Every structure is written in structure tokens, then in C-alpha cells.
């Protein structure tokens, strides 16, 4: 097989890259280890920055997002039993966020690729990448047990944190920057109408909790937990008791309860590799970096990377010039490190660290008090939350 860009992974990064390249008249083939049903049902992130929603609309993917996405103009930070509003739209000159589940983004992208005759191979096995330090990279894989090979001009490494592309780069080329957090998030989806019009980020002495939603009838909630928390220890009634304890405010606000339809634990880390390119291999999304989920940046960063990568590839295929591609890593990393900083800051401000003493707790509360009372501090949070420019 021959294509211009071989893409490993059909997550948001790989599918969006393939779609953006198609809009530029560039062919690609996407290889995905899982089935279409699996990737279209995988519950993950839910908040799209204005920057991401704008990119989707410009790429012709905005119709269902506009119809079904929930537009939000603010968030609450809650502590000491009180919810404090941060009006994102007012603080950022009219920008906002949209709640739209990651698997809905995936469904829209898969449909757009298939309608345009794009090639996505699901359920592939034994993917390996070769010769990417030359001008003729190759991807080998098995489909239905048969060996296949793709010859291409570039490889898009969009295979997530546990993918095969990053480890295929020779030792000594990449530098990893990493931080682990001593906690995780226990997340549930519940069939219950959201009881707050905006997301609520809660600091509580028992640990962080986050109120979000997916639709007018589905609430999404998270609790800070141990990184290796055993879900078997969390029957629904224990989850609800803990949620209510952390969320309930002195004015009587609390989430509505309903049947729990999904439950999972996410671990938390910050991770960046530098550089994000080697020869004709370009890493994008979780293959190159991970943020802790506080601030909802993972999916948004993945989309930003491939928007920058697609521009570089478009320049190359139209003119043979490589300036944008050569600067891909540098361009992305400037923004990635700011998003890393923001995600680390939100995480540090809102979670309980076992190593913290009473001084640290007072400092966290002072920071929350400052952020919810100083317009300058609120504006900084807001402009990062709705998404920095590309
Ligand atoms: P991925 O979505 O991971 O896509 C990579 C794709 O590559 C996958 O489909 C995988 O099956 C495929 N793949 C892997 N290896 C191979 C291979 N060898 N061959 C072929 N295909 C392969 N972010 C937030 O902002 N908020 C959240 O609440 C949040 N919750 C999350 C919960 C979980 C459990 C996880 C894992 C992530 C969560 N994230 C969240 C992060 C966000 O979902 C990711 O940042 C986003 O999915 C990154 O997109 P991506 O395309 O780079 O990678
Ligand atoms: C959601 C996830 C996040 O990490 C976040 O900061 C806000 C919302 C969500 O899944 O809805």
C-alpha cells in the first residue's frame, strides 16, 4: 500500500490529523488496534476549549457539536461550602467552553472520514514502524492475520501514551519530563439531570471532587481517590455518600442522584517528551504528552498538535518547503508547556496531598480565595481554561 501520511492510532489526534490532511488534498491511512465500536464508546474527556470548538467548526465538523454540545460561559470553584462563580465569557472577551463527550468527537470524525472515502483500518495487530529516519518510512501490521506494509512520506504517531511509536525512536534522542501525582480520580456517569448549570471544581478536606455533565439527563462526577483505587470497594451507595459529603454547600446545593451507568479510575501524571519529531516521524497528542485531567486539557492539546502538524504537512506537499514541519516540535512545545503549567496548577490548588501540613492547606485556601476574588487572577484562570491561541 502507498499513501502520503501513515497514521498510527484513531484517537482524536489521529482522526483529526487525517481529516485536516484530507481538507488540504493530502491522502492518509489510519491504523487502529481497537474496533470502531470500542473507540466510539470509550468514555473519556468531555470539555472542548473554544479553540477546539472553533477548529472543529472550521473543519466542517461543527454541526452536531453546535446542536448537541452544551455551551458554558463559566465554572464554579467551591470551597468552605460555598460555590464561587468564574465568568469565563466576560473575562475573556466572549469566549466559552462546550461540553461534548470525547467519544462523540470520535464518532463525528470517523463518519467524516468514511463519507469522504478515507481509509481507516480497525482491529489491526502487530503494528511496527520502520525507516522513518529516511525519506521512505514504512509501517507494517497484520490485518485479519495477513501481513501488510504501507509506504509513506511521513508517519503521524498518534497512538497514545502506551503506543508503539515513541518507544521505536532510538535511545538517547528523546528527553522525558515527568511528574506523578499521589492520587487518581474515580469517575462516574449517572442518569441524573445536572443540578448546576456550570461545572463545579470542589476543594474539600476529604479530597477534590468535580461536578460535570454530558447531557440534560446525564451527570458526570469525579472524586479524588488513591491512584490504585479498587473499584470493588466502591459500591454505588459509598460513591454517593462520598460525593454528597464533598459537594454539599451551605446553601443546600448538591448533585442529583440517579443510576450509575459507568465507573472507572484514572491515574494522574504530567509527562512531556522533547522533541516531538525524529526524521519523518511526528508525535502528537498523548503519544508525546500527558496532563493531569484537572482543567480538561488532554483532548484539547491533542487537537492543537495536529492542527499545527497538518499546516506543516500542507506546506511541504504544496511547495516542498519544510520550515513549518522543522519547527513543529518547537511550536507545539511552547504551548504545551503553558498548558502543562496550568494543569499542574489547577491540580495542586484543588487536591489534598498526603504530604501537606496545615500550612499547605491554609496556603491552598488562600490561593482559592485569591483566585475567586481578584479579577486579575480570575482572568488568568479564564484565558487558560477557554484555551490559549494556537
Ligand atoms: P488516544 O485517545 O489515546 O488515542 C490513541 C489511539 O491509538 C487509541 O485509539 C489506541 O487504541 C490506538 N493505539 C494504541 N496503540 C496502537 C497500536 N500499536 N497500533 C494501532 N493503534 C494503536 N482528558 C481530559 O481532558 N479530561 C478527562 O476527563 C480525561 N479523562 C480520561 C480518562 C482516561 C481513562 C484516559 C485514558 C484519558 C483521559 N483524558 C482526559 C485524556 C484524553 O482522553 C486524551 O488526552 C486524549 O484521548 C488524547 O488523544 P490521542 O488521540 O492523543 O490519544
Ligand atoms: C471533565 C473532565 C475534566 O478533566 C475537567 O477538568 C472538566 C470536566 C468531564 O469529563 O466532564
DSSP summary, beta strand count: 20
* Residue share in β-strands: 25-35%
| Anisotropy-based shape | globular
C-alpha termini separation: 34 Å
Proportion of helical residues: 25-40%
Q: What class, by secondary structure content? A: alpha+beta
Rg, nearest Å: 21 Å
Low-confidence stretches: none
Mean of all residue-level pLDDT scores: 97
Biggest β-sheet strands, sense, barrel: 8 strands, mixed
Strand order of the largest sheet: 6-5-14-15-16-13-17-20
Q: List bound small molecules.
A: flavin-adenine dinucleotide, 3,4-dihydroxybenzoic acid
The helix count comes to: 13
Topology:
Elements: E1 5-8, H1 12-23, E2 28-31, H2 36-41, E3 47-48, H3 50-58, H4 63-68, E4 70-72, E5 74-79, E6 82-87, H5 88-91, E7 97-99, H6 102-115, E8 119-121, E9 125-130, E10 138-143, E11 146-151, E12 154-157, H7 165-168, E13 175-191, E14 199-202, E15 209-215, E16 218-225, H8 236-247, E17 260-274, E18 277-278, E19 281-283, E20 289-290, H9 298-319, H10 323-326, H11 328-350, H12 358-371, H13 375-385
Helix pairs in contact: 1-6, 1-9, 9-11
Bound molecules: flavin-adenine dinucleotide (FAD) and 3,4-dihydroxybenzoic acid.
Amino acid at each position: 500500500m502507498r499513501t502520503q501520511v501513515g497514521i498510527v492510532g484513531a484517537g482524536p489526534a489521529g482522526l483529526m490529523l487525517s481529516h485536516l490532511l484530507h481538507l488540504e488534498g493530502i491522502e492518509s491511512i489510519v491504523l487502529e488496534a481497537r474496533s470502531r465500536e470500542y473507540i466510539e464508546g470509550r468514555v473519556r474527556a468531555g470539555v472542548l476549549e473554544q479553540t477546539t470548538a472553533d477548529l472543529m467548526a472550521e473543519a466542517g465538523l461543527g454541526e452536531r457539536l453546535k446542536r448537541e454540545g452544551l455551551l458554558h460561559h463559566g465554572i464554579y470553584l467551591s470551597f468552605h461550602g460555598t460555590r464561587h462563580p468564574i465568568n469565563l465569557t466576560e473575562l475573556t472577551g466572549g469566549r466559552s467552553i462546550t461540553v461534548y463527550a470525547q467519544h462523540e468527537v470520535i464518532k463525528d470524525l470517523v463518519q467524516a472520514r468514511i463519507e469522504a472515502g478515507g481509509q481507516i483500518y480497525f482491529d489491526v495487530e502487530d503494528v511496527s514502524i520502520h525507516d522513518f529516519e529516511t525519506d521512505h518510512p514504512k509501517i507494517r501490521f497484520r490485518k485479519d492475520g495477513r501481513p501488510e506494509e504501507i509506504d509513506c512520506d511521513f508517519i503521524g504517531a498518534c497512538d497514545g501514551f502506551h503506543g508503539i511509536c515513541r518507544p521505536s525512536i532510538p535511545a538517547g534522542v528523546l528527553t522525558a519530563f515527568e511528574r506523578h501525582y499521589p492520587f487518581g480520580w474515580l469517575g462516574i456517569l449517572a442518569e441524573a439531570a445536572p443540578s448546576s448549570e456550570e461545572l463545579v471544581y470542589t476543594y474539600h478536606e476529604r479530597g477534590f471532587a468535580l461536578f460535570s455533565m454530558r447531557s440534560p439527563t446525564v451527570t458526570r462526577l469525579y472524586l479524588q481517590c488513591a491512584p490504585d483505587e479498587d473499584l470493588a470497594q466502591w459500591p454505588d451507595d459509598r460513591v454517593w455518600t462520598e460525593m454528597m459529603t464533598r459537594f454539599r454547600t451551605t446553601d443546600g446545593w448538591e448533585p442529583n442522584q440517579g443510576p450509575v451507568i459507568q465507573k472507572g479510575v484514572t491515574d494522574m501524571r504530567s509527562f512531556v517528551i522533547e522533541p516531538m519529531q525524529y526524521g519523518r516521524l511526528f508525535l502528537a497528542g498523548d503519544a508525546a504528552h500527558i496532563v493531569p485531567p484537572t482543567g480538561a486539557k488532554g483532548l484539547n492539546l491533542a487537537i492543537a498538535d495536529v492542527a499545527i502538524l497538518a499546516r506543516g504537512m500542507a506546506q511541504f506537499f504544496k511547495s516542498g518547503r519544510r520550515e513549518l514541519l522543522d519547527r513543529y516540535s518547537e511550536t507545539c512545545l511552547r504551548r504545551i508547556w503553558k498548558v502543562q503549567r496550568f494543569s499542574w496548577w489547577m491540580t495542586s490548588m484543588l487536591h489534598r496531598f498526603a504530604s501537606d501540613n496545615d500550612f499547605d492547606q491554609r496556603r491552598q485556601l488562600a490561593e482559592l480565595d485569591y483566585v475567586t476574588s481578584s479579577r486579575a487572577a480570575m482572568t488568568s484562570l479564564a484565558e487558560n481554561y477557554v484555551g490559549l491561541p494556537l
